[in-house]
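Hypothesis: this fold can be encoded by more than one sequence.
Test: take the structure tokens below, design a sequence, compare later.
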């Protein structure tokens, strides 16, 4: 099984004291089965740019550099298959009156297009997409 890690999972892992359940879940998954989306990379980049002070900005930039190094061969891009899945998902959610933010929809569409499971605590939005999900915060520690 392959996992597409949402931004909130990666952000948790950069904390001084990350939630033990998230750390244990991550260690229970094989490294080659973990992917990040280009959308997640962009969200982290936005976080670096929006950091309120130089110290945090430097810490976030360092975390981004480590993320790029760790996932250099496992960054999921938005290709034709993912774009088609996004369009289908967007139309379905719009028809149901339950739209979600485009970044979340693109992450879900990437998982759907590749048969992956999204790892996120954002169950409120992502469960509506039909993508397989796991919430590492709810896994036993």
């Amino acid at each position: 099984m392959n996992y597409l890690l949402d931004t909130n999972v990666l952000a948790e892992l950069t904390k001084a004291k990350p939630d033990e359940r998230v750390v244990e879940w991550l260690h229970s998954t094989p490294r080659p089965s973990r992917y990040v989306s280009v959308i997640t990379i962009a969200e982290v980049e936005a976080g670096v740019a929006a950091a309120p002070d130089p110290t945090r900005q430097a810490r976030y930039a360092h975390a981004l550099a480590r993320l790029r190094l760790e996932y250099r061969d496992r960054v999921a891009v938005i290709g034709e298959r993912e774009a088609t899945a996004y369009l289908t998902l967007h139309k379905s959610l719009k028809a149901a009156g339950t739209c979600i933010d485009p970044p979340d929809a693109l992450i879900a569409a990437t998982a759907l297009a590749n048969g992956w499971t999204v790892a996120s605590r954002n169950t409120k939005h992502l469960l509506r997409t039909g993508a397989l999900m796991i919430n590492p915060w709810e896994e036993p520690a």
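The first strand starts at residue 3 and ends at 5. The helical segments are 7-13, 20-27, 38-50, 54-70, 80-96, 102-114, 123-126.
Hypothesis status: open.
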